[in-house]
Please model this.
Amino acid sequence: MNASTLLFWPVVALVAAGGIGAAVARNLVYAALALGLCLSGVGGLYLFLQAEYLAVVQMIVYVGGILILILFGVMFSRDVLGHSTRPGWGSRILACTAGALVLGVAARLAFLVPSLASNGLSSIRTPVDSWDGQISSQSSFHLGDVLLGGWLVPFLVVAVLLTVVLVAALGLVRKDAK
Amino acid sequence: MTELLLGGPERLQNYLLLGALLFALGVVAVASRRNAVGYLMGIELMLNAANLDFVAYGRFRGPESAAHAQVASLFVIALAAAEAAVALALVYAVFRNLHDVDLERVSALNGD
Model:
C-alpha cells in the first residue's frame, strides 16, 4: 500500500461524509457546509485522476461560487434550523427507498464494468500511467488542445449561454419586476 | 473486499461506487427536502456524481478519452453554475412575493 492509496481513502471518506451531511442534515447551514466538504473532496479525487485543471475549476466554481450562492440562498429560508419543516415519515421512507434503489442499480452497474471491456476500457485495474504524486501539466495541455479544437463551437455556445443566463437572472431579481 | 481496498486510486470501481453513493444521496435530498435551497443542494450532489464518473471513465480509457471526458465535465460545471444562478434568482423572486421558500407552502399557482 503506497502513499497515494493511504491518501485516497480519507478523501473518499470526506466525500461520503460530506454528501451524507448535505443530504440529511436538518440545519441548512450545516448541510451547506457539509456540501462544501463534499465538493472539496471531489476536487481532491480529480487530482488522483490527473485532472488538475478540473480540480482547480471545481474549487473556484463550486466551492468559491456555487456554495456561496447556496449559503446566500439559505438566508431566504424562514426555518434555517429545520424545526417546523421536517419532512414527514411518508416522504422520508419514499426518499430512502428511491435512494436505495438508485444506489443498488448504480453499484451493480459499477461491478458490471469489467464485462464491458470490449468498449475500450482495456485496463480496469491499473490506469494508463498511475499517479506518482507529481502534478504534471500534461493533461492540461491536452485538455486545452481538445477544448479549443473539436469542442470550440460547443465551448462558445456555453459562453453565450452563461452570459444570457446571468442577464436573465439579473432581470428576474430587478427591483421593479413584479 | 481487500482487493477493493488495496486498489485505492487505481481501481475504477472505487470511483464508480462513490459516484453511485453521491447520486443516491442527491436523490434522497431531492425527494425529502421541503426547502428550495436544500433541493438545489441535492441537484448539485447528483451533478458532481455524474462528473466524477465522467472523469474516472475517461482516465481509465486513455489520454485521448481523458481530455474529452474532462471537457464534458467542464460543460457540466458551467451549466451547474448557470442553473444555480437562475435557481437563486427564482428563490429570491419567490421570497420577495411570498416571504417563504418552503416548497409545500409556495402554492400560489395551485388553482385551489
Summary: Residues 122-126 of chain A have pLDDT under 50 and may be disordered. The two ends of chain A are 61 Å apart (CA to CA).
